[in-house]
Design a protein that fits this description.
Layout: E1 5-9, H1 14-26, E2 31-36, H2 44-60, E3 65-70, H3 76-86, E4 90-93, H4 100-105, H5 107-127, E5 138-144, H6 168-187, E6 191-196, E7 199-200, H7 209-218, E8 223-225, E9 232-233, E10 236-237, H8 238-249, E11 256-257, E12 263-264, E13 267-272, E14 278-279, H9 280-293, E15 307-309, H10 325-331, H11 339-354
Parallel strand pairs: 1-2, 1-4, 2-3, 4-5, 5-6, 6-13, 7-10, 8-15
Antiparallel strand pairs: 9-14, 11-12
Amino acid sequence: MTNKVILVTGAAGFIGSNLVMELLKEVHPVHIIGIDNMNDYYDVSIKEYRLKQIEGLAAEHPDSSWKFVKGSIADKELVDSLFEEYHPAVVVNLAAQAGVRYSITNPDVYIQSNLIGFYNILEACRHSYDSGQAGVEHLVYASSSSVYGTNKKVPYSTEDKVDNPVSLYAATKKSNELMAHAYSKLYNIPSTGLRFFTVYGPAGRPDMAYFGFTNKLCNNETIQIFNYGNCKRDFTYVDDIVEGVKRVMQAAPEKKMGEDGLPIPPYAVYNIGNSHPENLLEFVDILQQELIRAGVLPEDYDFEAHKKLVPMQAGDVPVTYADTTALEEDFGFRPSTSLREGLRKFAEWYREFYI
């Protein structure tokens, strides 16, 4: 990726910002264009904090370049102008409206960002080859473990049929995979989709359960643990996700012609998860221990008095569990950060940011 132009959408987001920082640290020189609409779905100050961190790192690496554009990928003219001006070799599409529960009450933003926005990215990739230009070498995009819906078989494999989404969010992510496949087939665009499994870590998304739990525990409120604590999640630390994305970016699916003289779609989908699901109750117990250790909660905090076990919520699934065999075989990588190590880093960041 040395000296290449990389476009990262959702660059002020949780995964996007961490990816940009990793590229600035590890690839010299590199030229990164970031776009983010900076919407207020959650606290914008966290997005601004992430951007400041990126700017600080960019200043330390003057051989590389970082350009941030505030705008939406649903704005076709803006997307086209970025491709025309910067000619990205690698595109990492992480911009999306996230969250299962929010999609039940605010469907419009999911259609705008996740469908129209992704279509605009695909079209821009398609036209990047116009007039014999080199064009986009690899499109990497975020999918989600939620595409597995009510899949009963665990661990979830990318070979499984995923035709039963239980939320609009999941349906838009499955649609992204289908759209990418069509564009890969029609226009020979190398594309790789990544199904992320419950990403957590410092400066993460406040709408995620672990972050919401922390806020409530700090405010002396009671937390609700769904499915009576029997949910299992494949919690994946953000650094592991970023390492997986970085490796995938460097290995585009190969362009090949079929016997019919037409392209075989240069298309791939991988799971990136910890492949070790944790019981939600245990997760929350480790979280409160680490919050006490970091000085976010007092030593004598009565955790038992602040938790309530409740039934499942609409749109949720009882277990997420990634089969990461393909990722290990193709890239020699599997996430390895332990829950305690990851939650310790989150708790220490939370103390610095909020207390």
